[in-house]
Amino acid sequence: MKLAFGLLQLSAASHFRAGGLQYRTTSDPTKYEVTRYMGWKRSSAGYSGGCDQSDIDNKVPSTSLGSESITGIGSVTAMYIVTNIEDSALVDSGSHFCFGSYTFQIDVTSVTSFEHTFGGCCSISFQLDDGSTNSGSFGYKATVNDVTNSSPQFASPPAVYLMKGCGGQEYAVAPVDPEGDTVRCRWSLSSEVSDMAWSSMLTQFSLDQDTCVVTYHPENDKATTGGSKAISVQVEDFDADGNLLHSVPLVFIAVVSEPQLPNARNPSFVNELLYTGLMHGDDEHHDLPPALSRKRRSSEPAYCAGRPSFIDPPASTDKIVATYTEGEAIEIVWRAEYQLEGNSFTDIDRSQIVKPDGMTCSEFDTSGVSKCTWVPDETQIGDHPHCATVYDPYGRSSERRCILIQLYEACDEGLERVGKYCLPPCSAGYERDASINCVDIDECASALALCTTIVETCANNNGGFTCPCSAGFERDATGTCVDIDECARKTDNCANTVEKCINSVGSFSCPCASGFERNIDERCLDINECSKETHDCTEFTETCENTFGSFRCTQSSAFKMMILRQAMMRGY
């Protein structure tokens, strides 16, 4: 058996493309569910003559591709059921692959934690930043520290295609944790994935540990040609105290190529098959000679603009929540296009769609549309990542768009679905917060209150609100808030004599009374019309005398003397 296994590993040399492991708890605490992802070169993928559509339709498992070791449990056969195939006539046969998964259960009665490993020799040649290549062993390793907890779940890709020299290209792992544990990502170590580990010679890729997004940095890719790059990430979840629960591997190949666009002289001209020579499956490890770029591009290549993009589902759609009903189908429509010389095209040549078991997706039609239909069974209740990548005829790839399908069982009567829980509905006037607790709705702050503006104010209370009359208004016999005339009721606070009360809608004002003016201390003081010469007394004949709040005009003494003299002269 050892000899046979050794021969198998030798025959599988250079054919490994992708791998990964994920775990779920089951209703039986002694059983732990394992999902293995694998990708292999199509001609050596565990299917006689290469995998084909009938293998997908009939869920045909591959032959054994080796043995995995699980500490404390034993060994299990490494195999998978193909779900994705790359066999396009436009693609170099060396880049054809079979990819799929296999789900099985292990007995964890005797273990609380374990390590799960797989590996072999030898990998294809992987290109580094400077254009040189290396190869060696491949594999993956998972660490499980709590068999009562599920690992992060994510859609593992068969391969990722990038355009050399183009910025803004990312791969989002998009993990979801069934228990809501904290999830982070890191580069895998050589002790976990052997020679497929990230190194300082691969700075053209960076990993955001919190968002689990891998970014391609073309400015660090100094090779003059495209090539295959090893991408290996450990997706990890932690409990509330920061203890590691799982570390599960995601291993795949990123193919960096230079798409060939048609030119004006020959619009349909394509020089060679897509990705020719980029996945070197040479068992003898003849590394390619270094291809080092001696100068940087001053701008991005023309093919960077117009890469395929998704129109549907909208970018804002990251989740679809559905209630399981026996025999009821879930449908998702994907629609994509690409640009060439300012024109839009929808002849999507190839696609890779990661989907739940049992989902079928049509080929993209001439309108750039693919329809995916899924009739789940009761055992599939839970979260299911659903991801798509499309390619135009020139090998340019879209972003990898992922949607999380959350399939839940129907809630009992009187309960409502809130994420993965069935809960009583909130009472009127309450809504659920981010912690799914029912909290009061502040109708006043959210503009849900129907209080009459100006004459009423909104007063929030638990479960509702009231509309008391605004200050300066009172409710009449009909229930309407009407203005209070504070002046007529003498409920104003105007200063007697020096101020007068003027009623206004909802209030009143106290301007200074006639003959008074407001000083800098805001007090109404008497205006001295005489000194300010604002009186209307007749000059010479009258004298202005100021009074409190007014003035009076009395006969002047000079005028009196004149009258007296005139009288004396007349002999009076």
UniProtKB/TrEMBL annotation:
Entry superkingdom: Eukaryota
Keyword terms: Disulfide bond, EGF-like domain, Glycoprotein, Repeat, Secreted, Signal
Annotated EGF-like domain residues: 483-525
One Gene Ontology MF term: calcium ion binding
Xref: PANTHER family: EGF-LIKE DOMAIN-CONTAINING PROTEIN, VON WILLEBRAND FACTOR C AND EGF DOMAIN-CONTAINING PROTEIN
Gene Ontology CC entries for this record: extracellular region
Organism of this sequence: Oikopleura dioica
The keyword rRNA processing is annotated on this UniProt entry: no
Main location per the UniProt record: secreted
Organism placement in taxonomy: Eukaryota, Metazoa, Chordata, Tunicata, Appendicularia
Protein name: EGF-like domain-containing protein
Location in the cell: Secreted
InterPro entries: EGF, EGF-like_Ca-bd_dom, EGF-type_Asp/Asn_hydroxyl_site, EGF_Ca-bd_CS, Growth_fac_rcpt_cys_sf, NOTCH1_EGF-like, vWF_C/EGF_Fibrillin
